[in-house]
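pinned: reference chain
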Amino acid sequence: MVVKVLAEAAPDELRFAEVRRRVPGISQKMLSVTLQSMARDGLVARRVEPTVPPAVHYRLTELGLSLEGPLSILRDWAETHMPEIDRNNRLAEESPAQ
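pinned: its structure tokens
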């Protein structure tokens, strides 16, 4: 989801608070850990403005942008198959455990 949000903003940067607003249900801690990991992997560029408090901006690198296509295909697959997955989960809940 973070890749999608940053890809939609590309080539512009987004501040941390804006990324968090655009990713529903994510905690500040989880978003911070995710962005740090993505930066370490070279998927995200991080820029810090020396203000009080510091303004931190994120944008996808070329490597990060290259994920948008494969993730879009995966997202389409999930949306297409979600009814079947939900149905299988309901059936599993209804049948006795073996």
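why pinned: The chain has five helices and three strands. The two ends are 36 Å apart (CA to CA).
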